[in-house]
Amino acid sequence: MTMTYGRHIGHALKDMMEKDPAFRTVAYFSMEIGIKASIPTYSGGLGVLAGDILKSNADLGVPIVGMTLLYHRGYFNQSLDDEGYQKETAVSWQPERELRLLPNQVSVYLEGREVKVRTWVHELTGLNGYPVPVYFLDTDFEGNTADDRSFTWYLYGGDQRYRLCQETILGVGGLRMLRDMGYNSLETFHLNEGHAGFLTLELLREQGYESYDKIREQIVFTTHTPVPAGHDHFHYELIDRVMPSVFSGQLRRMMPPEGVSMTELGLRFSRYVNGVSRKHTEVSRNMFNDPKIDGITNGVHPGTWTAPGFKRLYDAYAPGWQHDPGRLVQALQIPDEEIWKAHQAAKLRLVAKVLELTGQQLDADVLTIGFARRAATYKRADLLLTDVKRLLSIASGQVQFLFAGKSHPHDEGGKAMIRQIYRASQELGSTIPIVFVENYDMEIGALLTQGVDVWLNNPKRPREASGTSGMKCTLNGVLNFSVLDGWWIEGWIEDVTGWSIGPESKEAELIDYDESQDAADLYGKLEEKIIPAYYRNREKWVSMMKHTIALNGSYFNTTRVVREYCEKAYGVSFRGL
Ligand SMILES: *Cc1c(COP(=O)(O)O)cnc(C)c1O
Q1: Are 115 and 107 in contact (CB under 8 A)?
Q2: 224 by DSSP, 3-state: which?
Q3: Is 436:404 a contact under the CB 8 Å cutoff?
Q4: Whose CA is nearest to atom 5 of ligand 1?
Q5: pTM: predicted TM-score of the whole model, two decimal places
Q6: In what order do the strands lie in the sheet with 454-457?
Q7: Which one, of 394, 481, 406, lies nearest residue 440 by Cα?
Q8: Nearest to residue 48, comparing CAs of 40, 99, 118, 254?
Q9: 542: closest CA among 320, 349, 331, 314?
Q10: Which atom of ligand 1 sits closest to the CA of residue 466?
């Protein structure tokens, strides 16, 4: 009796601690957070990673909260016209269906106007029921000018001014909102990329502009871009126009006279900095001339990206795998035919969806290669088409391809690449079916990374900071065929977990190299290794599937990533399982 009573008190206390803002110690800020396709506030890898990391924090019971902006018109919806030109339309969605509006309201000052900010919340629930709230800041409501309302419309839309306003709302408004909601015990602010770096200004204001060291002690910064041009940069002329003078003056004291690089701001004002793969960490140390930059290799959330059939198998052969994906080493024990059946089920689901979306019928018994990523030129979606004659001689009747990916509306090079794929798909017809699936999002991402046989990735080295879509594949026994860049350098064992394309770059710098090698290697391995293994050595193929699950799926997951952040960056312990 007493014990039961005691346990009730225990539960009530636990419940209170889990919900009470006063017990949260970490806040995770990201310009985009991708939780699911029906909350279209993400564009790609950065946002999906943020969502996966927050989900794993919930699984592990880490006292964290997420902070981002609400984008009423999302990134954009992509469709192709009948010549393969990308057309962009605004996303239309109803936040009230997915998120809950809170009564809290704060203000930020932009261009001398008071802009009111409110917030919505989506609560993630971990495997053991632990809640992690994710907040979406919003200025689109009555009381703000039409212009100010539009600040939370588009992700990565608008000009520099629009971007600066958004980043001020995220960094300054985000912290104000957290305080308004009662988060007064936060010890760590994690900046997922530099966009929320103006948080430092608000922290300084709170502390009476006393000491930079006090600010540094509270900030953790993750950098994601190995290309200097990929980093946000604002000139003081614009900053002076947009921000209140206390903030612009403060920034001048903190940063060099040329302007404010958000990455630089993150690097200078944080106690811990990390890159997102071993290679990227090396490149970042070199690029920023900072040997202290640490590395935490990215991962993906197992519960989100594993196909239902494989979930069932792992539950049977590797119980507890979602709490501890390290247990997936047991995948080697799963009988071959079970692996194959689970894979074919995922492949059939993909084939059905492709038929539904495009009217094109693919064959579930034909080797299927997937390629889906942001259509930027360095990703080289067209590498496969370098020598179409060669491709025809190798792959006719034996391979079918699925492509997906959006190009940023201003990236003409990326759009041209999409057109090239589209044209090739028409020219090659049914000899080598190439299907472009429009409007790549998390739902299509999941279908592809679960249902194809091989995942192709061939960016120019070393521009891929990490890449995570290939990691989703490893949880589903889909084999990676990739350039040695980003995470794949760490996951690749030739003929065991997948195949490489081209040599590894030994330099920690961006340099041009002979790209024709990559194309030759791509064709060579397709012809000599991949097609023969798929059609004539099923045993070897399935063995590779199992090894990719056991050796890669067990490691490249956000459960391991979050444990590393807790240990090395946050200094908090999770509640354990
Ligand atoms: C996983 C995912 C990404 C990230 O993939 P990369 O390997 O970094 O290209 C991008 N977009 C969507 C929709 C995803 O699901």
Answers
A1: yes
A2: coil
A3: yes
A4: 469
A5: 0.96
A6: 434-437, 399-404, 367-372, 454-457, 479-483, 498-501
A7: 406
A8: 40
A9: 331
A10: 8
